[in-house]
């Protein structure tokens, strides 16, 4: 049996192949294609995990929650298709969608993988490497569909550039690949959106935290995790200070 890191990578790669095959030549409407892909990928990943690690817990965006996971140290958290909107659009050239497979142990992401199937790329804690930082100005990735208001103020404070992109996994891996300095989100996410990207980012030497600088903790009773910062480690103090300033200003009368 592969170790946990290799298992996460292997399963993400299997799901990536499936999603690419479903997308190629599929003439189903956007909503139908997205629903089909979510279900097929979830079934494949869940089956492979239960076969390989039957004693571990599981939390998936596409499956009913099993609260037995709360009593387990080892819990896999998966997003079978992160960026369903981008995957399903008629513009099949979009590549900003991903597969997330993550093992958490005592609430911490440990063995994780993020696949970018349209690009043929796979990132994992088995071999996480960080590219050089891009040139200035500071480039901050934000949600394509729900850019947070706080990001606009942070960009003003730092004279930074905001770049919209789909999929949390795609944005986090863009920081890893040296395409941007940071990924900032506020306003609604769940554990499956960030768990695998955070695990891979930390393994590569990036900073990953909540917007208040606190750690990202997983396998909680309520999986809602509304905010996230992933960035170059050397920029973390500057970004967290700007975020704190923007939050203070938002509370002023």
Descriptive tags:
5-stranded mixed beta sheet; single chain; D-Maltodextrin-Binding Protein, domain 2; 2 domains; alpha/beta; Fructose-1,6-Bisphosphatase, Chain A, domain 1; 253 residues; globular
Terminal CA distance reads 59 Å
Helix/strand-derived category reads alpha/beta
* Share of residues in helices: 25-40%
CATH superfamily of the largest domain: Fructose-1,6-Bisphosphatase, subunit A, domain 1
Shape by Cα distribution: globular
Tally the beta strands. Answer: 10
CATH class of the largest domain: Alpha Beta
- Overall pLDDT confidence: 95
- Radius of gyration over all CA atoms, rounded: 18 Å
CATH topology of the largest domain: Fructose-1,6-Bisphosphatase, Chain A, domain 1
Q: What composes the largest sheet?
A: 5 strands, mixed
List low-pLDDT spans.
none
Approximately how much beta-strand content do the residues carry? Answer: 15-25%
Order of strands, main sheet, comes to 1-2-3-4-5
Number of domains: 2
- List the helices and strands in order: HHEEHEEEEHEHEHEEH
Q: Treating each run of at least 4 consecutive H or I residues as one helix, how many helices? A: 7
CATH architecture level-2 label of the largest domain: 2-Layer Sandwich
Catalytic activity: adenosine 3',5'-bisphosphate + H2O = AMP + phosphate
GO molecular function: 3'(2'),5'-bisphosphate nucleotidase activity; metal ion binding
Keywords: Magnesium, Metal-binding
Binding site for Mg(2+): 61, 79, 81-82, 193
């Amino acid at each position: 049996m592969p170790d946990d890191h290799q298992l996460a990578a292997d399963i993400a790669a299997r799901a990536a192949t499936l999603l690419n095959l479903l997308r190629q030549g599929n003439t189903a409407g956007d909503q139908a294609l997205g629903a089909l892909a979510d279900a097929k990928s979830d079934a494949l990943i869940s089956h492979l995990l239960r076969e390989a690690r039957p004693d571990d817990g599981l939390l998936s965006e596409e499956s009913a929650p099993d609260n037995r996971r709360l009593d387990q140290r080892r819990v896999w958290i998966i997003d079978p298709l992160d960026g369903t909107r981008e995957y399903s659009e008629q513009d099949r050239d979009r590549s900003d969608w991903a597969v997330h497979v993550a093992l958490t142990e005592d609430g911490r992401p440990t063995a994780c993988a993020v696949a970018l199937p349209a690009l043929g790329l796979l990132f994992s804690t088995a071999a996480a490497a960080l590219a050089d930082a891009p040139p200035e100005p500071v480039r901050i990735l934000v949600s394509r569909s729900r850019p947070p208001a706080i990001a606009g103020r942070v960009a003003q404070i730092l004279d930074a550039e905001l770049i919209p992109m789909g999929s949390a996994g795609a944005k986090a891996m863009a920081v890893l690949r040296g395409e941007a300095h940071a990924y900032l989100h506020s306003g609604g996410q769940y554990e499956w959106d960030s768990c695998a990207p955070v695990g891979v980012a930390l393994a590569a030497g990036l900073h990953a935290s909540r917007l208040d600088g606190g750690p990202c903790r997983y396998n909680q009773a309520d999986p809602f995790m509304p905010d996230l910062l992933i960035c170059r480690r050397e920029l973390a103090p500057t970004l967290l200070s700007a975020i704190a300033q923007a939050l203070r200003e938002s509370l002023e009368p």
